[in-house]
Automatic annotation (TrEMBL):
Pfam family, one: LacAB_rpiB
Protein name per its UniProtKB record: Ribose 5-phosphate isomerase B
Family named by the database record: Belongs to the LacAB/RpiB family.
One of the record's GO molecular function terms: intramolecular oxidoreductase activity, interconverting aldoses and ketoses
Residues annotated for D-ribulose 5-phosphate binding in this entry: 8-9, 66-70, 99, 109, 132, 136
Species of provenance: Halobacillus litoralis
């Protein structure tokens, strides 16, 4: 599995914690920043990262901003992306099993690093259940392809 990791200025600290988790799990990843603590614009990170998942260069992305909301709205504009904004362990698991989400978004100003790291671990290690969920996810792709 290859993961692309990004944040805006509001998510830098949490992004570093998530990078540690990926290293611990020996998951290959590329961290595309941001490096600067001054204000940047979350779509400038969310969209390129999401495009690289949609293109098949990466399997998944983890995107972090202050709330996770800007990252999730932006990433979901990219065709083929199913970005899930997650702040608890239950939805971290179920969004992989049911939605086959390929982007995880979290907000550094919403949850603490301990929970965020557990969410990242759960999300990267849970498989899509397919079955009846396949049909539902396909309907999203059908709509995108119209
Ligand atoms: C940046 O101040 C903040 O708006 C951003 O990190 C994010 O929360 C947007 O959704």
């Amino acid at each position: 599995m290859k993961v692309i990791l990004a944040s805006d200025h509001g998510g830098i600290n949490l992004r570093k914690e998530v990078a540690d988790v990926l290293e611990e799990l020996q998951i290959k990843f590329e961290d595309i920043g941001c490096e600067c603590e001054s204000s940047v614009d979350y779509p400038d990170y969310a969209i390129p990262a999401a495009e690289r998942v949609a293109d098949g260069e990466f399997d998944k992305a983890i995107l972090i901003c202050g709330t996770g909301i800007g990252m999730s709205i932006s990433a979901n504009k990219v065709k083929g992306i199913r970005a899930a904004l997650v702040h608890d362990l239950f939805t971290a698991k179920v969004t992989r099993e049911h939605n086959d989400s390929n982007v995880l978004c979290m907000g550094e100003r919403v949850i603490g690093p301990g929970l965020a790291k557990e969410i990242a671990k759960t999300w990267v290690s849970t498989d899509f259940e397919a079955g009846r969920h396949e049909r539902r996810v396909s309907k999203i792709a059908e709509y995108e392809n119209k």
